[in-house]
Amino acid sequence: MYQSTQVDHSLVAEDYYAKDLSYQEQYEKLENYAASSKPLSLLFDSEKELISIHAPEATDAMTGTVTFYHPSRSNQDVNIAFSVSGGDKAAFSIPELSPGRWIAQVDYKDSKQSYYFEKDIFVR
């Protein structure tokens, strides 16, 4: 009992139950991204503290959100909405991200289906 009270529960998402129920939907989005012939790409410029999302040529309009998730400090998470279409680029300045490891969680959709992917980002 004593040891269980010493555990830091901040690494657990507050809405873990709802996230668990939507796991199948998330898995399908991951599969859609892996099977896509024209996926979005996310690039991070650490010197300029700039994130850019690139849409491949000849793709439909895509809308979504990027969540910058900090594994050990969920109270610092940042959500940014975006919209891009064929050949476009969306760029975001992110000076509010503290140094350390972040996970960029990109959830987006086009006219046909939804996609999801993650990318590790290291802010210095």
Tell me the series of helices and strands, N- to C-terminal: HHHEEEEEEE
* Integer-rounded radius of gyration: 16 Å
What CATH calls the topology is: Immunoglobulin-like
Distance between the termini: 39 Å
Domain unit count: 1
Strand content: 35-45%
Morphology: flat
Provide the CATH top-level class.
Answer: Mainly Beta
Structural class: alpha+beta
Question: What low-confidence regions span 5 or more consecutive residues with pLDDT below 50?
Answer: none
Largest sheet: 4 strands, antiparallel
Under the CATH scheme, which architecture would be assigned? Sandwich
What strand line-up does the widest sheet have?
4-3-6-7
How helix-rich are the residues, as a percent range?
10-25%
Beta-strand segment tally: 7
Q: Figure out the total of helices.
A: 3
Average pLDDT works out at: 84
Task: Describe it.
- With 124 residues, the protein is of the alpha+beta class.
- The protein has one domain (14-123): Immunoglobulin-like (Sandwich).
- The protein has helices at residues 2-5, 16-21, 23-35, and strands at 41-45, 50-54, 62-69, 78-84, 89-93, 100-109, 114-123.
- The strands form two sheets. Strands 4-3-6-7 form a four-stranded antiparallel sheet. The chain has a three-stranded antiparallel sheet with strand order 1-2-5, with no helix packed on it.
- The protein is flat.
- It starts with a helix and ends with a strand.
